[in-house]
Write the structure tokens for this entry.
Amino acid sequence: MKKHDNDTKPGRQPYEKPRLRSFPLAADEVLAKGCKTTTPGTGFQGANCAAGGCFQIGS
Amino acid sequence: MNATPTPRKRSTATPQQMPGTTALCLSVAGVCLHFRGGERIRLAAPMDCYSTFLRASPADGPCIDTVEMEVIEGEVPRPDLLEPVFDTGDAWELSADDRRYVFRTRIRPDNDKPLWSMTIDRGFNHGRIYCSKELFVTSGKSMLARHIVQYPLDQLLMIHVAAARSAAVLLHAAGGNIDGNGVLFAGPSGAGKSTISRLLGDGGSARFLSDDRIMLRRFGGKLSMYGTPWPGDAGVAINESVPLKAICFLRHADETSLRPLKPEQVLQRLLPVTSIPWYESELAGNALNLCEFLIEHYPAYELSFRPQANDLNSVLEEFSAAA
């Protein structure tokens, strides 16, 4: 009976343990949450103006 | 003299000369949001950057997905039956029941009263926008609703409709048409999207569709990018589309260079600039599928740059030459 010997196969890569990597998702910038400027006169310019009449969310 | 009496023309103006319109349609990347105000409510005209994205009705132009939204006064009925889904903490929150989603904003972070609330069926086909009295200007029997077709309401709606129905996602990216090739320049706030739009757009090397938000839409085996009415500091908002060629992630540097990225490097840069509704698994899955398609089929680069147009033009010749 032929013995399977995977260790001797050419080109086998050494095992590398998976690594977890985390990075921020910047939800404030991509989920219509924040803004940079407010529209004058809307009367809803608080700490966060997204609920009011603000418009520009630019970079 | 034989004077023939002429019929008296009926005036089409509202009795109080209230501005605005009874309905308007916002069309972005083939998604048409059709806002209707009903008998009493008129809708204020949006800002100038919306002008090329507006129509009187969905029938006035190409439209792939239509969402019907009725604008009314009042508050969402029976909100106590809703289950919370997501809360930004200060700007807006999402709740749902078996049939509908409900988005609510707050006037201020310390005030729980919604400025507007939006209900929409789970298929994202039709919904209602309930407006508080603060949003209206009243004249006689007519009411003018302000700040409806405007950020953040329209963008919030568009993000979710795109993920639910349209195989599309919104990206925090500028996008330019370089000799018929669509090239994205993505990055968070401060990365240089508006700067690069000015440098390349003003010099004529590229026609930019947006300097801040691009909608990406899949048609079979291809992606196309679309301008949006949400510009950045450069104020670029063009209602045009172009087939996608490549995506560049912006990075400030002392020298200009273009470096190809591996898929895992693209993923790490792409997710933070993509509008993905992480809190709803089906919607998030649709958006992630499109991200995966982008990573698998399109070249991605890190574009390190300093703000000098000559350097940038030489780098971007690569995109204009390759058909």
Observations:
- The two ends of chain B are 75 Å apart (CA to CA).
- Helices of chain B lie at 153-165, 193-202, 263-270, 281-297, 309-321.
- Chain B has five helices and 20 strands.
- Chain B touches chain A through 48 residues (CB under 8 Å).
